[in-house]
Amino acid sequence: MLAGGAAAVHSVARVHGWAGVSAGSIIAAAKAFAVSDEGIRHALERVLSSGSALSVDPSGLSRGGLFSLEGLRTEIDAMIGPGRTMGDALTPLVIVVTDLDTGTPYYLSKRHHPRVSVAEAVLASSSFMSGVTPARTIPSLGTSLSPDIRLWGDGGLTDNTADHVFDNFPYPRVHVRCTPDHEISRVRDGDTLGIALAQVRAMLFAQGTIKSRRDDGHVVDVGRSGWDFVKSPDRVVREWGQGYDAARRGLDEWL
């Protein structure tokens, strides 16, 4: 849905820059490198229908956990080319990660971090709940003599909108987001599974809460977010279309 929403924005406007966080960083990077909408959709179809997004190797629990970050690296390299850096992007690009030392967002950009690997930035931004210790290093930060060895986590923990990063641009800001699902039934005493799931949901609350740093621009909700890592190609196409249609309706009303 998010990919379809981004395609809708691109279809009605000249986009001067892309910013993304977590899953959105994948779409932002692909768009900033002029990957076609068809190419993005085909990549989603291939990964989600194969189940390769899931990590099934117990040895990877310390970093892999819920999904395969190295599989994600392969897909990024396939879409934009191996070894591409932030400076190679064709438009301004910002990817948000969380500095785990300070618990604050850190903004990797084409302008200020031209030598940083796009794949490393996206993997760090997407590392939420990706294992017992959900964290990544970004080896391309720093220099060969003085590497930056900090650990980074999912950017959505501290800024899941990235909607203020182009404040210096004289253009309207459009924020495309998935709508959180808040339809939760009441948990009853004795419901062991329900209580366990409620605890997990509480842990995820901070991740799903909108942390916008602006109150202007335009917000487009493209559908409910979910945690499905395996989807049929037909479902991917259907959800892509739903995101596209929802974004176009919202943009047409705004414009």
Question: Describe it for me?
Answer:
By secondary structure, this protein is of the alpha/beta class. It has seven helices and six strands; from the N terminus they run H-E-H-H-H-E-E-H-E-E-H-E-H. The chain has helices at 2-12, 23-32, 37-50, 69-80, 118-125, 192-208, 233-254, and strands at residues 18-21, 93-99, 104-109, 152-154, 174-179, 218-224. The strands form two sheets. Strands 1, 2, 3 and 4 form a four-stranded mixed β-sheet that branches. The radius of gyration is 18 Å and the shape is globular.
Features:
two-stranded parallel ribbon, globular, 7 helices, 37% helix, alpha/beta, single chain, four-stranded mixed β-sheet, 255 residues
Write the layout of secondary structure elements.
Elements: H1 2-12, E1 18-21, H2 23-32, H3 37-50, H4 69-80, E2 93-99, E3 104-109, H5 118-125, E4 152-154, E5 174-179, H6 192-208, E6 218-224, H7 233-254
Parallel strand pairs: 1-2, 5-6
Antiparallel strand pairs: 2-3, 2-4
Write down the overall geometry.
globular
Oligomer: single chain
Question: What value does the average pLDDT take?
Answer: 84
The largest sheet, given as strand count, sense and whether it forms a barrel, is: 4 strands, mixed
Instruction: Spell out the helices and strands N to C.
Output: HEHHHEEHEEHEH
Helical fraction: 25-40%
Uncertain spans, ≥5 residues at pLDDT below 50? none
Question: What is the terminal-to-terminal distance?
Answer: 21 Å
Individual helix count? 7
Structural class: alpha/beta
Radius of gyration from the alpha-carbon trace, in angstroms: 18 Å
Count of DSSP strands: 6
Please indicate the percent range of residues in DSSP E strands (runs of 2 or more).
Answer: 5-15%
